[in-house]
Design goal:
Oligomer: single chain
Strand order of the largest sheet: 12-13-24-15-20-21-22
CATH topology of the largest domain: Jelly Rolls
Low-confidence stretches: 1-7
CATH superfamily of the largest domain: SPRY domain
Mean pLDDT: 85
Helix content: 25-40%
Radius of gyration: 58 Å
Number of helices: 8
Largest sheet: 7 strands, antiparallel
Strand content: 15-25%
Length: 540
């Protein structure tokens, strides 16, 4: 049977009426086979009942019986033929859930069976009466995810209120008052929105790529700054070490030369003494020899020449004085200090140029100014006035401390310069936002102030304890640099290009403001000049 089935063609299983493969084959009494539908329809149209193949006449309409053997063979042949014709499942296609070997492409999915079928395995749903009642839809992957967990129905609708997929039963209960639309309609709306979302995502990606590039550029600049700092430091320290080595060599040479001079003097004196000893030794020998002569005439003649001693130095006044090294080392250190000061001046000049790049624009805030202070219209100058102004109460205003803050606050790196020319007293620096404004104020880093003070007694950093600073002759402009993250506040003499003082290890937790105390002026008008926030001049 299997061999015959393998060798037969479609013609062997074809109905002679429809010329197609048998469908529910039945046999006539004469032994010929036809589709039940085909032979029934054929006889319905005929007056006499005869076989379409052999034309045998039947007195009565024959009782048709199913040809069981032929039906099985047709089923086997049809299944084999359809399997060969069906394509295998491809990428992004729904596979048949029934295929056990090579999975074929599903042509329908059953919402009752929760199964996807290829054409051969779909055949029972097209033939069996009970299965024909099942709802078939286009192939769907993961059918269980497409069903409502509550009602076990297909999710066909979209609730616009809760933005979820729902089934028909959901709209009759939980989502009864909510607007719902078919999935396809909402799909089209959301698909249209995808373009805008994609554009926004692409913009965000570009912004972040730009941020990455900016960070890389910053790292690159930081590396260049670090390399330059190392190179400058190596250059300065190498020059300093050479200077120290030179000072050491000069000191060694000077000391050795003085020692050599003393040694040379001592050698000369020793030679002279040794010569006198030699002469005296010879005279001693002559004296001894003369003492043994018995010739009176010779004795007297020789004694006369021995009576006068040979010329010798008065050694009681002669001494070898050790060289003095007083001031030798100090002289070398003075030279080293001069070299170091020159190097420091160059370094400070380069440092000042770097910090000046962080210049900020700042204007004074009149809402914080003490009532006795007068501010310029542009907010760049402040000096003490003669009249106490009646101003509205403001929690930001200083009531006793004659000072003023800027409108702007800063919390990274920033630099500003203040002109102090022609003033005999002033205070300036930075302060945190929460400093006390009412009543007497105590100015220290602990209270949120990092400032320097200048008056007739000198210049001081108002720390705890205070740090007295060297007076700068004709100090005209003070530069202030703050590195918020590093906890650094530095002050500079801008005109002299000299570093004044740096407060390190500061702790900042709030925004910082510029703070200026112009100082009181006397009855003669001294110290009436204003403090001026000045623009940075890079050529200073």
């Amino acid at each position: 049977m299997a061999c015959a089935n393998a060798n037969w063609s479609e013609e062997n299983f074809s109905c002679s009426i429809c010329l197609d493969v048998f469908s529910s084959p039945v046999s006539t009494p004469c032994g010929h086979n036809f589709c039940r539908t085909c032979i029934t329809k054929y006889w319905d149209e005929q007056v006499k009942y005869k076989c379409p193949v052999c034309n045998e006449l039947f007195n009565t309409r024959p009782d048709l019986r199913v040809n069981t053997l032929l039906s099985e063979m047709v089923d086997r042949f049809g299944t084999s033929t359809r399997v060969k014709e069906q394509p295998c499942v491809g990428q992004a296609e729904v596979p048949c859930d029934v295929c056990t070997g090579t999975q074929l492409k599903a042509v329908k999915s059953c919402l009752v069976c929760f199964t996807s079928y290829c054409q051969p395995h779909l055949e029972p749903h097209q033939r069996v009466r009970v299965l024909k009642k099942h709802r078939l839809v286009e192939p769907m992957d993961r059918l269980e995810d497409r069903m409502c967990k509550k009602h076990d129905r297909l999710l066909e609708l979209f609730c616009q209120t809760e933005q979820v997929c729902v089934c028909q039963f959901c709209t009759e209960k939980d989502h009864m008052s909510h607007p719902v639309v078919p999935l396809k309609e909402e799909y089209e709306v959301k698909t249209a929105q995808l373009g805008k979302i994609e554009a926004e995502v692409q913009q965000m990606i570009q912004e972040r790529q730009k941020n990455i590039q900016e960070i890389k550029d910053t790292v690159k600049l930081n590396k260049a700054d670090a390399d330059r700092e190392i190179a400058d430091g190596v250059q300065v320290l190498t020059a300093l070490m050479r200077c120290i080595e030179k000072c050491q060599d000069d000191l060694n040479q000077m000391v050795k030369e003085r020692l050599k001079s003393t040694e040379k003097q001592a050698e000369g004196l020793i030679k002279e003494l040794e010569q006198e000893i030699e002469d005296l030794t010879n005279r001693s020998s002559e004296v001894k020899q003369l003492s043994h002569t018995k010739d009176h005439l010779h004795f007297l003649q020789a004694f006369r020449s021995l009576k006068n001693p040979p010329p010798t130095r008065d050694w009681t006044t002669v001494e070898v004085r050790p060289p003095s090294y007083v001031g030798t080392l100090r002289s070398s250190l003075d030279q080293l200090e001069e070299t170091l000061n020159m190097a420091m001046k160059k370094l400070c000049d380069a440092e000042l140029k770097r910090v000046q790049q962080y210049e900020v624009d700042a204007t004074l805030d009149p809402d914080t100014a003490h009532p006795n202070l007068i501010l310029s219209e542009d907010g760049q100058q402040v000096h003490e006035g003669d009249v106490w102004k009646e101003l509205p109460d403001n929690p930001k205003r200083f009531t006793q401390g004659a000072c003023v803050l800027t409108r702007q606050s800063f919390s990274w790196r920033f630099y500003f310069e203040v002109q102090v020319k022609d003033k005999t007293g002033w205070c300036l620096g930075v302060a945190r936002e929460s400093i006390h404004r009412i009543g007497k104020i105590i100015v220290t880093p602990e209270t949120g102030h990092w400032i320097i003070t200048f008056n007739k007694d000198g210049m001081v950093f108002r720390g705890n304890p205070a740090v007295r600073l060297p007076l700068r002759a004709e100090l005209q402009k003070v530069g202030v640099f703050v590195d918020y993250d590093e906890g650094l506040v530095s002050f500079y003499d801008v005109e002299a290009r000299v570093h004044i003082y740096s407060a390190t290890g500061c702790t900042f937790s709030e925004p910082l403001y510029l703070i200026l105390f112009p100082g009181l002026c006397d009855y003669e008008g001294n110290n009436s000049a204003p403090l001026i926030i000045s623009p940075v001049n890079q050529t200073d």
